[in-house]
# Entry
Amino acid sequence: MTPPPSRRRRAGAPERGYPRRGSVRRAQMITTYGVGSLVAVDNESFIVTGIDSWNISEAPTIYEHRLARVLGVKSFRLPPASDDTSRDGVHVRRFPLWHSCPTCHTLQHVRLFNSPPGKNECGDCEEDLVPSRFVMACAKGHIDDFPYWKWAHRKNRQEGASGLCGGRMRLRTTGGTASLRSILISCTCGIPEVSMEGAFRSTALSDLKVFCSGKRPWLKDAPTDSCSERPRTLQRGSSVAWQPIVRTALSIPPWSDGHFTRLAPHMDDLRSMYEDGDTSGIRGFLKAFTLREPYEFSAEKVIALLEAENHGDVAPDQEQVKDDAYTALRKQEYERLIAGRAESETDHEDQFVCEPPRSSASALAPYGLEGPMLVKRLREVRALKAFSRVDTPETRTDVQEAALSLVGMDWLPAMEVQGEGVFLRLDEQRLDSWARSVAVAARVDRIHANHLRMMRERAQAPADVPESPATPRMVLLHTLAHALINEWSLDGGYPAASLRERLYADDAMAGFLVATATSDSAGSLGGLVAQGEPDHLALSLRSALVRAQWCSADPLCVESEASGVGGINLAACHACVLLPETSCEHNNGLLDRALLIGTPEDPSIGFFSEALRS
# Structure
């Protein structure tokens, strides 16, 4: 048997013919690799720098008035891109700075390895260095290298020790297990070898009198913050090491029509004229603007837009109504999706076309569906507002939001998706009558309790976790959206990952939007709108419900007392209603298909059980 080739790089080996850099899609700069996140490129690790270091001279500007007002910015920017002739992509910095060599096992700061210029390798072994697997972070977003010296010397430190023993740290793995017990750290000063076991305890670092360093390495020249938060040990690839705080909004009238999209870059000037009562100035500006643009602007329509702006928005500076502002965005969208906007009333530049189907919706009456709307043209903007570490908005009401820049910026990174969708509503009277059932309430109470328990277990401050959104109305709408997305992915030719739900579920709303979630070839081909025609929708809905009656994991699935991460689902698994997580607003949680079709013991708890029997 031929032995494997040596991993040692030979002297004189040819250099690689391509630059040592990684590339990510622009959309990933919002959801996966945004500011402050850790990115692995080949055998190296980097942290994405703040937006004040980005070169946005060629980055397209995105305007979405309602979302910008709530977030307190003027506009959004698509993250800059780089190509073979440009080096002005999104900037990164090396992090973590402690590395180890897989051959000699030396563990130290990367600068001490005497690496050749332009390479990240051990100067003695010529092996690629391995970035530290562990970092320490706090709930305010600060992040720093794991304190290996203090961890290894924790049982041998003398009072007043400075943190230097003159020895060289080493890290090795026994390979016996995949646990932290197999990761061993030693020092040439002669201390006993210790493992990383116990490093992830919530008090592991504070017991060593290790305090948060207050460092923000993603921000250039950022001063060290004074921080009293307790640091935690995290794996650098952990989901809680970087959690994006993303806000989204649909473009709806009147801000989605051609007037506003063309005038959006100049709205600050027009708004100032309007606030000063200078309507003649607005007319003069539009007259001059018309000479440059082959478009007829109506001063009356622009003034009406400005009036709607003043009376229809929530001020962005009121922190006490911040959550209400985001709820208001959804309610405005819900009302507009119900009201619709006919295609005959729009032009080719309008970004919102929503109208009822031409055929009668009587076929949907037995299912409790009313007023389906075909959204033939739709635009959604997703903006990265901030990010968090350790805690997430789902586990803490007052989660600390880490800033994207050192200085205040009047823009945020964002992406836009243009596509189509279908909007569906349930009869609220029938829904309320069903939700009052004792058996229905008992099932949802189990989901609610499990969700709260999971959030408390994950939270730094269990007393500050937010209220679970699990209600009979929400769980039913959520599960129905999943069932239809799975059905349409089979019947309509769309991959499930290219569709996305948008829930409108509270005391005043009872609907959901299924829309295209990507802007590629699956974005807007008309196939999704065709699924919303009543006759076709009735067949798809019935097929989805019949499919939900039986899961290949039954009877275990339907009889489950808790399933999914943290037990926040009941009758829901990958064989029935779960979706790719990018398609779901709640990470495949808070689902129960028994609320759709009932259980073998009690079919009455299913909202659609009577319709299926007819």
Observations:
- The longest strand covers residues 369-388.
- Residues 5 and 463 are 56 Å apart (CA to CA).
